Amino acid sequence: MAITRNFKTKKVIRTAGLMTGTSMDGLDISIADIGLSNNTADFNMIGTTSIPYPSDLQSQVRQAVYGTTKNSSELDHDLGIWYAEKLSVYLKSESIDNIELIGSHGQTIHHVSGQSTLQIGDPSFLAEKFNTPVISDFRTADINAGGTGAPLMPRVDEWLFRNIDTAIITLNLGGVANVTFLPCTNNGDVIGFDTGPGMALLDETFLLESNEGIDVGGEFALKGNADKRLVNNWLKAPYFLELPPKSTGRDQFGLDWLADHRRELSSLAIVDQLATLSLFTAKSVFLACEEFIREHQVARVIISGGGIHHKCVMKYLKKWFNPISVVPSDQLGVSVDGKEALGFAILAVAHVKSIPGNIPSVTGAKKALVLGKITL
């Protein structure tokens, strides 16, 4: 295709990345000038922002995640229009122009590791409004090649952070938590997987108990006392015993999980429930990393995602990972809230340059593949 041939010769491509994650809280946008090769990604960040879902649209998203095909079909259309409108407003407000490419992850409605996945938000509205190619549907190619379809950020982490001298762990705390293990260059394969719950259980619990928003900063959770016995019992669940490659989602750690553990949780005050779930998230992350830490001289854990603002989860993470330093990704020039959106901008550039975007040692796919589908 002529348009992708033109991209292959460009050294730098101004790209918009759009991400709506499993937290179901809104749209992250990152705009960057991106240069990409097989081994490294260079970028100049032009702008990044987060736009909350309006309450009616968030309600539609929740109904689609926990509801019917009809909900998903209608929302695919509505989200596509909303993405295009919000990107347009943001670009105008920041006087950003000359967008050449868009990478849109879409809203995950369904993900069963290695079987099927569905992200919605019709990309044709973006393509039409900006007269720009849009890359979307990043996960299905990996699943079709025998992979889990997630996580995809390890390839981005490798491009951005892999170091010749030190081992690094990256952690994204969205609705689900996922990690990337980056050994020193030439000292082993990159490994990445979903560790289990991120912020989804905390957000759903606060919403159920308070009927108002979420405990973004973790102030309520900090007032509580964690029930360590419950946490240790929950960590015996089959998912935590599985070896990578593996991925998960709200299908396993969402409302159904809370319903199954309602009796245990209801015996605790709301602040104690939140403290207990905070410890559950943090300890499940650390235990997933423990073997890699034993085998490598890990220099630091680089954290991004909305969970970084949750003081209680961060308190437990720093306690468990001590003496390894836990640092926000913005200390390395990558926005903590915009990293995944930047990641899908980079994966969009990888698509038009025919560079594989998955890592078989991460997802279990038979081979490395160019990810995504193009809408013109």
Automatic annotation (TrEMBL):
GO BP terms in the entry: amino sugar metabolic process; peptidoglycan turnover
Looking up Gene3D superfamilies in the UniProt record yields: 3.30.420.40
Pfam families on file: AnmK
Signal sequence annotation: none
Gene Ontology MF term list: ATP binding; phosphotransferase activity, alcohol group as acceptor
Which InterPro entries would you find in this protein's record?
A: Anhydro_N_Ac-Mur_kinase, ATPase_NBD
Q: What is this protein called?
A: Anhydro-N-acetylmuramic acid kinase
